[in-house]
Queue: 2 jobs
Job 1
Amino acid sequence: MRKEPIIKLVNVWKTYTMGEVQVHALRGLDLEVKEGEFLAIKGPSGSGKSTAMNLVGCLDIPTKGHVYLEGKDISAMGESELAQVRGRKIGFIFQQFNLINTLTALENVMLPMMFQGFPEEQRKKRAAELLTKVGLGDRLHHRPTELSGGQQQRVAIARSLAVDPDVILADEPTGNLDSATGKTFMEFLRKLHREERKTIVMVTHDDMLAKEASRIEHIKDGQLVRR
Amino acid sequence: MSSLLKYAIGNLLHRKTRSWLTVLSILMGIMAVFALMSFGLGIQAYVEEVGESTGADKLFLQGKGIGAPGTDTSFSIPKEDVDFLGKIRGVKDIAGLYFQAAAIKFNDQIKYNWAMGNEPRDWRFLEQSFGGGIETGRELKQGDISKVVLGYNYQIEDKVFGRAVALGDKVEINDREFEVVGFYSEIGNPSDDANIYLTDEAMELMYPSIKNKYGFVIIQADRDVDPTALAERVEEEYREHKGQEEGKEDFYVQTFTDLLETFGSIITVLNSVLLLIALISLIVASVNIMNTMYTSVLERTKEIGVMKAIGARNTSIMKIFIYESGILGLIGGILGVVLGFLVASAAGGAAAAAGYSSLRPIFPVFLVLGCLLFSFLIGAASGFFPALKASKLKPANALRYE
């Protein structure tokens, strides 16, 4: 059965002005992400895949064109509304983990729930549960600097799941991990997809990694490569 | 919200050195403001207290010369004039006072201080005007030609004389021997507390030329008469009596409250100048906080991007940074108030030890709370623009920032 796409980019242009030169990062990109799928977006550096990822993650709005999240056009949203949508619907996993170093693992995972106004007790309980699930039940009160790269990325997974979003966005998630740790991480991601029915969008330039996904799209020169 | 606050505090603790340096700058300013205001308020309270307690209905009439009241030797008020003044409507009581410099010798040490002479029946009236009274011993009586009452400081070692004077001791005033029969309570400045009090007879014996020529006059207003209005009336009638032109009188009349306010306002002006300097230091502190916060925003650009990515709204980011700068201000305020209290107490103690017990700081609750609120607001306001900058960062750009 064909489902309505959860994220849909229609003829999206993103133009940056650098001095007097206009750089078109995206030139009429069309992209659909279906609910429950595991999509890999692949492309060389400079292809516009990071920009595409920003738009899919509601971190930015297009210069031209439309981005729909669950049928709603986010291109017209204000910053505050956009932040709300991101906070509720999308979980981010970054290449550099991007944990907050002054907070403990537990507090890092609690953070997205704080911005959504969850009560403190609930935040604490869920964060502890999630960290236990990713195998860090004994590291709740460690700070990121006291954790290995693999452990930090697992905290990041727990954080991305905190508000139980529909979509997980992973940007080169294994880029800073050694191959063994990277493999373990990918297993987590697959499990999330299989067992939790999360929609996963992963941006990577790594062929091996992209193969883990159920579908691969290629971006080149700001457009999808049709094949 | 408490979580944002906790996060803000965590950030401040994370960069301890910089936080402390910033706190230090605001601490200095608040300390100075708090200490200076405690003195300013203390002076005001002193003036009000003394004015309301006993002296409010008293007026002083004295020569226009420079120096302490009554010390102008070219001016005096004859006894007949005192009688005239006593008959003015609204005057309840009146007393003329001899006022002369005198050499007082004790234990082979000689000091030059002011001697005041008065009819003994008037002493209680005068005491009311100054807000003092006999502390030890007794008052002077009619016929006490060789008895003296001394100011508070004489009974303290190394204040007036190397040795403390005690009741029953003999002192020499202008080479005449007097027995000390009493001491006055503390007035609060070294000059008044070194006064020598004698009977009018004793003064007339030592200074025959001043007989019936008083240095100044103290008038008490009737209960239902406004002292300020009475002061104007006395000035007008005495001017006519002396046949002087308005504005060219050789005397002036001042209410006790005026006198205290003059004293109070001199200190207040001095205090205000210092306060202004302290406030300038707070502006510097504010710039310092702003600088710290701008640096912090720059350093944490990526962190701000991450927080925005995981759902932080602009207002949340704004709050975090304003909390941080507000807390810096508040901590500076708390420490500033504590140190200001210590400094002011020490300074008040030193002033009292030097004889200026009227210069005493007071610490009302509103001053403490006001300083704390003020310091928090300075901090929060200084953090406003850095916080605005942080909140306006575009998440996509901020995340790319290295």
Note: Chain A touches chain B at residues 54, 57, 59-60, 79-80, 83-84, 86-88, 91-92, 94, 98, 100-103, 107, 110-112, 114-116, 120, 123, 159, 163 (CB under 8 Å).
Job 2
Amino acid sequence: MSKKKKKQQNVEAVYHKKLIKRRKPNRSVWGDIFLYLFLLLVAVVMVFPIVYAVSSALKPLDELFKFPPRILAQNPTLDNFSDLFVTMGKSWVTFSRYLFNTVFITFVGTFGHLIVASMGAFVLAKYDFPGGAGFFKLVTVAMMFTGYVTQIPNYLILNALGWIDTYWAIIIPAFASPMGLFLMKQFMEGLPTSLIEAAKIDGANEWKVFAGIVMPNVKPAWMTLIIFSVQGLWNNKAATFIYSEAKKTLVYAMQQIQSGGIARTGQGAAVLVVLMVVPIAIFIFSESQILETMASSGLKD
Amino acid sequence: MKEYWKKYLTLRRHNLQVAWKKAKRSKMCYAFLFPYALLFTLFYIAPVVASIFFSFTYYNILEPPSFIGLQNYISLILEDDIFLIGLKNTLMIAVITGPLGYIMSFLFAWLINELPRWVRSVAVVVFYAPSIAGNCYVIFSVFFRGDAYGYVNAFLMNLGIIDKPVLWFIDPKYMLPICMLVILWMSLGTGFLSFVAGLQGVDRSQFEAGYMDGIKNRWQELWYITLPNMKPMLMFGAVMSITQAFGVCDVTMALCGYPSTDYAARTIVTHLFDYGFTRFEMGYACAIATILFLIMILCNKAIQSLLRRVGT
């Protein structure tokens, strides 16, 4: 078995070599070497702050302030993380409550966004109806300005709805993120229309077509919507729309710890790691699906 | 002329009737789109309209808004020096980090495209991670700490380039350049992913044809084959870059403080926060938001018309 596998790998390697050779008759070797060295250098620069943050979080107290500094921790410990939980445990609102707030907001916001945006994207991609194209154009325009522009009127609108200081102030606006609808619609356009027509001939109604045929076929786009939505919601401080301490998010609480100054340096680094690990982990697990979706992300005119 | 108008009107009416009939038949479509359209209108369209409306009023939430015409805009441009600093800073950041970040995104996406599969997927994570790493950028305040134990200071002093530590985030001279550095570090975002994916999808046979036609090196290949194929992604990436470049505020607020020394790191968005959420002068803040909105939309439209010419 293993022999067979090896052989197969060999064949693949040869094929691969040939493929590369065939594809690049116009490459100079020195150009290749120079460009890849450059790429490597930049990659090291890009990853250095992240590596440094992670290793700081693992450093015991005496190493944190060592000078000259070491990049990697000599005696890595998880003390900073346990200290962080001790500090959080002493706060007036318990740690689990902050965690619940963030998880609840992230989960509900992402789920709702996925459903609402997919429903919209489905009809925009697959049906021709008056106003559809115009609406989609509006959505692409909405991607051209940041959320900060709308933040103040949003406050007034949420206030009028009576949602200030509730979870809904964060969750409901997240449903309408234009990016998700845009990516979903572009991806759904790639689905063969015959698939939908066949289902209709078999007597499925629109909802059945959407839930039973279209949605299972656009799973890569789900992951993309999920990562963009989680990224926004997991790191949402929610400080402008939510006042009650009991409803504030993990990020907010952790940044309070971080601003505790030099004595909290280790815990601050631990906070950085906790906050970045979720979006990066989701991205690593779903990279190929996200890239598949992004392949159809182009803006055509 | 009258004849012409009559014809035009009947045509219009006919088109409307057709559209109305079509709309009646596609009730289901509207039902599907309704939830999203409602929320989108409520949280994206209505705020923009409201922002434009309130920008002509004095409004502090407690009292009903009173109409004051163009007064907000006049004060912004003629009297508010700090706004002008913010505008200048935002434009500087946008002009430098926007195009540079965009070019970097494309360049690295293009370079890693020819790597073997598994190296490529590692490289994508490495380059993309900074932009999704939460507030990891505050680690730069450790590198650029103001005393002699800050790593950059210590390094430069060892080399003898400076003889006393530089207060990187307090001295107005250094604030913006360092913030730009950090923003560049984070600039390989959604646009970068779009480029990576788009490059994968370029039809291989076009390259073969190009070799036949005598394309000599990778740069010609880039300009004549790759770029024209990537046009839609280039558009999308540009939108992402511009939006990000004009919306800078988190980085400057976290690193240089809010407010920063001499307002040297103030951007339009932090000015907006100042008036909106600290002073509660909503009318004035809405005028700032409207200006930012107009700048972003105009810039996007201009860049898009420029990009249409790529590879032709």
Note: The domain at 87-294 of chain A is CATH 1.10.3720.10 (MetI-like fold).
